[in-house]
Write a structure and sequence with these properties.
About 20% of the residues lie in helices and about 20% in strands.
């Protein structure tokens, strides 16, 4: 973690103690409420009770029926993310956002994919400030100047739809605003690199090139993934250039692209809850994610919002 006399993570050139130390506070685990229930009539994934998903060799190229269902799940996930993002404001706890999103899954006739996935206790992930991913909703209230990523995944009609975005909470400093905007652009560059016949490593190359051009680091420990009837399939999508990953992109493939970009180090550590991943130096990090379908000529974003924001994702 940053010490008082270390250079501040924001890149101002000032010491941490004279820059962001007094404006931000290192996150600490809060109190986690009991897991929320899902009505028995809602269809569940295979791990809902046991916590352990059954892994099987799901085809990377999806059938027309699976693609049809994934379009529906993707639209539902996008709508639920928009609902959660609209709540991101000073004084609102991440547990309150979890409660609203949990009900939204049910209202759509779906199950929150994260709930009891390998024991995860909540219905979405809420990653604040230096949390890279997998933050657990708790009783901490969001504060003016925070940034928060909301990661929504719904299990609907036998398939999963997965998306996330980082939202600004109140009056956010310029360095964090730029980080969020560049991270959104990194996702766009990654999606633009998806073309049938290209190697998958072109996605990571596009993302990493854009991040490095702005002086940011790509978090390498967490990657995008294949998705469909399983939450995670064997296909992994690095957000950095990996020359050995020469698997060819094919029409009909469905996977997530979800770059995590840090204003400081790309290294991480895990809290004692075995889920929450934070930057090793306490610097801020942002993330955006879409589930995409490879078409004959390019890509279809299955989790595209109904209305695309003009300037990234914000809440105030």
């Amino acid at each position: 973690m940053l010490k008082a006399n270390d250079p501040c993570w924001c890149g101002s050139g000032k010491k941490f103690k004279r820059c962001h130390r007094d404006r931000t506070e290192q996150l600490r685990p809060g109190t986690i409420s009991p897991a929320r229930s899902v009505p028995p009539e809602i269809p569940r994934p295979d791990y809902a009770e046991s916590g352990e998903p059954h892994r099987w060799a799901e085809p990377r190229v999806k059938s027309p029926d699976v693609i049809r269902r994934m379009r529906t799940a993707g639209r539902a996930a996008a709508e639920i993310l928009e609902l959660g993002g609209a709540m991101a404001a000073p004084g609102v706890t991440t547990d309150e956002i979890d409660a609203a999103v949990h009900q939204a899954y049910i209202d759509h006739g779906g199950y929150p994919s994260t709930l009891n996935y390998r024991g995860y206790p909540k219905s979405l992930c809420t990653s604040v400030n230096e949390v890279i991913c997998h933050g657990i909703p708790d009783d901490r209230a969001l504060r003016d100047g925070d940034i928060v990523n909301l990661d929504v995944t719904i299990f609907l009609d036998g398939v999963h739809g997965d998306t996330n975005a980082t939202f600004l909470v109140g009056d956010v400093d310029a360095a964090s605003r730029q980080l969020v905007e560049v991270t959104r652009q990194c996702l766009e560059h990654g999606i633009e690199a998806v073309k049938p016949g290209r190697p998958f490593n072109e996605i990571g190359r596009a993302i990493e090139t854009h991040a490095h051009a702005h002086g940011y680091e790509v978090v390498r420990a967490f990657v995008g993934h294949g998705i469909g009837e399983q939450f995670h399939t064997d296909l992994q999508i690095p957000h950095y250039f990996e020359p050995r990953f020469t698997t060819v992109i094919e029409p009909g493939m469905v996977f997530t692209i979800e770059p995590m970009i840090s204003i400081g180090t790309g290294n991480h550590r895990i809290w004692d809850d075995d889920w929450t991943a934070v930057t090793a130096d306490g610097s801020r990090t942002a993330q955006f994610e879409h589930t995409v379908l490879v078409t004959d000529t390019g890509v279809e974003v299955l989790t595209a919002p109904a209305v695309v924001p003009a300037q990234g994702s914000t809440a105030s």
